[in-house]
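FIELD: query
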Amino acid sequence: MKNGFRKAGLAAMVMAVGTLAACGGKDEAAPAARPVWVVQPQGDGTAPALAFPGEVRAREESPLSFRVGGKLVRRLVDAGARVEQGQLLAELDPADQALQAQAAQAQLAAADAELARAKGDLDRYAKLVDQQLVSRSAYDAQKAAYEAAAGQARAARAQRDVSRNQAGYTELRAPRAGVIASRQAEAGQVVAAGQTVFVMAADGGREVAIDLPEDRIRQFKVGDAAQVELWNTPGARLPGTIREIAAAADAQTRSFAARVALDGNAVDQVELGQSARVYLSQAAGDGSLRVPLSALQRGEDAAAAAVWVVRDGKALRVPVTAGTLGSETVPVRGGLRAGDWVVAAGGHLLREGEPVAPVDRDNRPVAAAAQPKAD
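FIELD: result
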């Protein structure tokens, strides 16, 4: 009886061991791939583009003013009006200038009469000196009087011409076709010579006025390429180039004024006064690649740096040498390649060789990083 119980217990133990062995032989469930946000490093020796706010301006902006002073009696255009070359914009009261022109004409008539009298006297003295009825010194004195009268006549004629011109200066006309950008005087106002009445933006080139910071001014030069993004059309960038950079910084802002000229057909896509953002590339200078600050992790050595990259769908730690930290990115050199997909967030949770599911900023799968590369 005891032998029967022993056999039954032995059989149960064998079955239990067999069951455990069978369970231990099954494969463990594969761990789910961890989603990671990936980006590609910026290469070609360039750093991320810097953005500067600006305003669309005309290449030629002319302050228009009268060449003489007076009372503004008529203003024929307003801000925003399109004008053609030679079009009348405003008028001054012409009465004073007309009177000055009349006075100058009268002075010329008097000078011409004096010149005619001096010429007659000189002719008579010439005959008398030949007959030795007057002295040579008397003749010379009369000749000098004639030359003085001739000079006065020329001066009076020039003054008459100036007065006539000034009478015409009471009309302000557009020097070329364009748009009235602003108006700075109103009818009934007394304006001085040279005082700005209108600011006109001439047709033709359009530019974006920006300010470059003092600490980065040496990174840019005239002729550098730029991209312009209008505030009302985000994502659409227009080509341009830096046309000019001020030689000295502004005394208050300590920034350098610059103009970015729009290229080709881009001129027709902007309006004066629009707000814009100008993107300018900055040179990295050492041929390094740049990655987001969040991608930089501690290497196997506490003093070393590394980044996680996704290759063949797995996370791999790549040792790098980091440069000077920027506001958003950091230059790195080492085993990183320009075509790599770098883990920009969540790297501190990864393990070497761990399967990952790469996604972009909008949480869309990045197939190029997840698929193994063909040998």
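FIELD: remark
The domain at 49-59+205-283 is CATH 2.40.30.170 (Elongation Factor Tu (Ef-tu); domain 3).
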